[in-house]
Write a structure and sequence with these properties.
The complex is a heterodimer. By secondary structure, chain A is of the alpha/beta class. Chain A contains 26 helices and 27 strands. In chain A, a hairpin with an 8-residue loop joins strand 4 and strand 5. The longest helix of chain B is centred in the last third of the chain and has 21 residues. Classes of the chains: A alpha/beta, B alpha+beta.
Chain lengths: 713, 172
């Protein structure tokens, strides 16, 4: 092969080869699209990013990117990027905005918020953070300093309920400790599409003998690597988990020592799961009884076993919280909690990173205590959520905005907010239109920013600083690799400026982002300056990972000090303490009358590899991979309805309908229809009732309701 | 002469499309079709469907039909690497290569001239991997000389055989 020097300078420029001769420089940053924040090498020439590549030295992302991250350039330089602060001209229905200065924007924001605070109290302003999440602590601090208890996030429909289920059962969260795990139960998770940086590690573990059991309604790219696939009817996870427990207990495969010494409510649980024989569970879940038995035996007989579930598919059901409790109870039942190769408990450090660093983000957020402030949004309906998550349940925002009860919400300050993520998104849109003042911060002009009175342009990771710490002991600090697009700014600068404009006299905010992060990191002994020396990231030497089996010394942080099959907190609140299985509110079994007209189970929002919520629809490189909104149905169901591939069909629920294309695929089982959420022009969340929800977490039943698909051609 | 080639492991591909987008990022893909394409196929009966996916671009054939049919000599083989490349100045846009290629590799953009995967020639010569290989999250796609690919496959096959005689038993 010829050597480097044989390339002409034109060939090198065309091939984007970095070097002094080409003037192409590699600068270190992170991806903006999802929370994994994979490390990125940005190839920069003359101040413009000309190519991206995964940073090989990033210990969390291992040099790979997904299709979304690889499309980063189209995200950065998209024509829809908002370039200046924008003020709406005319009323809420107007679509005209005028460009204004940042100074002017801050004055307008502060005067509106102050006026509403003076008239109706600070609680009538809600602060909301959608995506991304990294700015949450700063917005929460601003919200509480302002005097409002109503800090809300997109976690009202993502992950928090999964964590809540774990906290009610074990007192804290845990995650699979992939060190010599012999059996991994992948429960409604497809990391090959949603966590691509973990793909190589997962497949390597399978190559080295780890057995995969896949549970979930879809055939996925994981399926061919799995020992077995338990293809449940959406919304029936709980019944399957209880049946697995039935087999494990009946066959004496559970960890007797752990159960006897460290758990509460085992006898009631054992007695309850007797109902869930594999045969009984087969009739609920559609998973063959013998497969349930084989899965239960493989999981329980494996020396080290763990369960990896998606962030929220198990809890996006009206019975989701208890379903998830039933799932994670299997970990304790088999003695796999807080042990090597099983589940590992590592407390979260800043921000949401289990890395063993002692950080004070909680203290930072609570610049002022919420004590004495009026009750948070949704706390009257979901007191358990309120007590454990200590933030508003934003699913109830539209209800409170519309009713004014128990007190009015007149303004929302939204960062990365997308009303189409709400169940019954049309209902949320009506609510936002009722507000006296809606201000949003975003990178792009979106359906939500268009409703706003004031829109503020923020920038991507490539244009600002950010601390990023990954699970494990790896982290980094980014500096901008290009100038911000237009007059866009870091969210943090906008938050601290708004705090100043509101005269909140925040001594930390006034010192800027880096000083705030140093304050948060202070107990860990690490400083931002330590990270700055390693632009691509480094091992966090100050992090010390905790030992396993902490419960042996300290017990569990639950009211009983034990793992609770029967939850004290749920029991005291008058709720069902055992992880009992209830049918989804709408299902062929619970509502046969509705199912007569709407016989298919609709499950929405499962990831497609090229999209992350609404973030990459506008990028031609990703959109072209799946251009049209489609409902996926099994060829068997399509044939019954005379539907062919690509036909225009009507997807309807008792609430509403959409016209979309049909995609016939064996990925979904007969009797199931699936659709990705938030497609431009075909928002499937409009088909879901805004109060179709889990009674404990408030989570919407996005992933199990009833529908029908009919040909309209 | 060395012959560079792609190697693709169908059992590893998850149809994540990262290779397609990384290719477009590397080659400033606009509205034209991408040089790389991923196609999935479903097989099996209802209830036991398997989905297989294939990522394909120019195969840089040893005996290239596109090169043979090109009337102007625009398509050529690089001596040092065996990469099939094109001198676009000579292309007259006759589409003969498109008809001859069994993999659908030649693409035609707005200027009417052919363009296609050059196996990231400049990157490979600089000791880097092609963009699609570099991004692949599962390791399904690799690129190397045929000699190296062949040696690697022999090693992998040997390990599978060895493991099958000494591997762990499943506790069923």
């Amino acid at each position: 092969m010829s050597n480097h020097s044989e390339l002409t300078i034109e060939e090198k420029l065309l091939g984007k080869i970095a070097g002094e001769d080409t003037g192409i420089e590699i600068k270190k940053t992170i991806c903006s699209i999802c929370s994994h924040n994979c490390g990125i090498d940005a190839y920069v020439k003359d101040g413009i990013v000309i190519k991206v590549e995964g940073s090989a030295e990033n210990a969390a992302s291992h040099g790979t990117l997904c299709s979304k991250g690889a499309a980063m350039r189209q995200y950065l330089y998209h024509k829809d990027r908002i370039r200046t602060p924008l003020l709406k001209k005319g009323g809420r229905d107007s679509t005209e905005f005028e460009a204004i200065s940042w100074e002017n924007a801050m004055e307008i924001a502060a005067s509106h918020l102050q006026k509403i605070k003076d008239e109706s109290g600070p609680e009538s302003v809600a602060f909301y953070v959608g995506f991304p999440k990294w700015l949450r602590s700063f917005v929460k601090r601003l919200c509480l300093s302002f005097g409002s208890p109503n800090f809300c996030t997109e976690s009202s429909t993502c992950y928090h309920a999964t964590a809540l289920a774990s906290e009610l059962t074990y007192g804290y969260q845990s995650s699979p400790d992939m060190k010599g795990t012999d059996c991994l139960l992948l429960w409604s998770a497809n990391p090959l599409h949603s966590d691509t940086s973990s793909a190589k590690g997962l497949l390597k573990a399978v190559d080295h003998g780890m057995k995969l059991i896949e549970v979930g309604p879809f055939v996925t790219p994981v399926t061919k690597h799995a020992e077995m696939h338990l293809r449940i009817r959406p919304g029936t996870s709980g019944a399957l988990a209880l049946a697995m427990a039935n087999v494990i207990i009946e066959e004496g495969l559970y960890d007797v020592e752990f159960v006897n010494q460290f758990t509460k409510g085992f006898e009631e649980y054992r007695s309850y799961v007797r109902e869930f024989t594999p045969k009984a569970a087969e009739s609920i879940t559609t998973v063959p009884a013998d497969l349930i038995i084989r899965a239960a035996r493989l999981f329980a007989k494996s020396e080290r076993a763990a369960i990896k579930s998606g962030a929220s598919p198990t809890v996006h059901h009206t019975n989701g919280l208890q379903n998830h409790r039933a799932i994670i109870s299997l970990v304790g039942l088999t003695g796999n909690f807080d042990r090597e190769g099983g589940h590992y408990v590592v407390p979260w450090s800043y921000y949401h990173a289990p890395n063993g660093l002692d950080t004070r983000d909680g203290e930072f957020e609570q610049a002022r205590s919420a004590e004495g402030m009026p009750a948070r949004v949704g706390s009257d309906i979901n007191p358990i959520w309120d007590k454990l998550k200590k933030e508003g349940q934003s699913v109830y925002l539209p209800f409170q905005i519309k009713s004014g009860k128990p007190y009015p919400i007149r303004s929302v300050v939204g960062f990365g907010m997308n009303y189409r993520m709400w169940p019954g998104s049309d209902f949320m849109k009506e609510a936002l239109n009722k507000l006296d003042f809606l201000m949003t911060a975003d990178l792009f002009m979106t359906d939500t920013t268009r409703l706003s009175d004031l829109v503020l342009p923020v920038c991507s990771t490539f244009e600002r600083q950010q601390i990023k710490m990954y699970p494990g002991r790896f982290g980094l600090w980014t500096e901008p690799v290009i100038d911000p697009i237009g007059e866009s700014r870091s969210d943090i600068d906008l938050i601290t400026d708004l705090s100043a404009a509101l005269k909140l006299n925040d001594p930390l905010f006034s010192q800027g982002y880096k000083a705030c992060v140093d304050w948060i990191l202070e107990p860990s002994g690490m400083k931002v300056a330590d990270l700055e020396q390693h632009p691509g990231g480094c091992v966090l030497e100050k992090g010390s990972m905790p030992p396993y089996q902490k419960y042996r010394q300290n017990g569990f942080p639950t009211p009983s000090g034990k793992m609770e099959f029967s939850s004290s907190i749920l029991g005291e609140a008058g709720l069902e303490p055992l992880p009992k299985y209830e049918e989804p509110l709408h299902s062929p079994i619970s509502t046969p009358d509705i199912a007569e007209k709407f016989p298919l189970v609709l499950t929405t929002g499962s990831r497609l590899p090229m999209f992350f919520h609404s973030r990459t629809f506008r990028l031609p490189w990703t959109r072209r991979l799946s251009p049209d909104p489609m409902v996926e149905i099994n060829p068997v169901d399509a044939e019954k309805r005379g539907i062919r591939e690509g036909d225009r069909v009507k997807l309807s629920t008792p609430k509403s309908h959409l016209i979309v294309k049909a995609h016939l695929t064996g990925k979904v089982a007969p009797g199931v229809a699936a659709m990705y959420h938030d497609y431009p022009g075909a928002d499937v969340n409009e088909l879901i009732y805004p109060d179709y929800r889990d009674p404990i977490s408030g989570y919407p039943g996005f992933k199990s309701l009833l529908c029908e698909v009919e040909s309209v051609t | 002469m060395k012959q560079m080639s792609f190697s693709f492991d169908v059992s590893r591909c998850s149809a994540c499309f990262a290779c397609v987008v990384a290719c477009q990022d590397q080659n400033d893909g606009g509205d034209e079709p991408a040089y790389r394409q991923v196609t999935s196929y479903e097989g099996g009966e209802t209830g036991s469907v398997t989905i297989s996916s294939l990522s394909i671009a120019c195969a840089h054939c040893g005996d290239s039909p596109c090169l043979m049919v090109c009337p102007t000599g625009a398509i050529f083989k690089r001596n040092e690497s065996g990469i099939i490349d094109i001198n676009r100045d000579l292309c007259v846009g006759c589409h003969s290569c498109q008809l001859a290629c069994p993999f659908g590799a030649p693409k035609f953009g707005k200027d009417g001239k052919m363009s296609k995967c050059d196996l990231c020639h400049a990157r490979v010569v600089s000791g880097l991997q092609p963009a699609c290989v570099r991004v692949c999250p599962t390791g399904a796609l690799i690129a190397d000389t045929l000699d190296n690919l062949s040696r690697q496959k022999a090693e992998e096959a040997s390990l599978v055989i060895l493991k099958s005689t000494t591997g762990k038993q499943t506790p069923l």
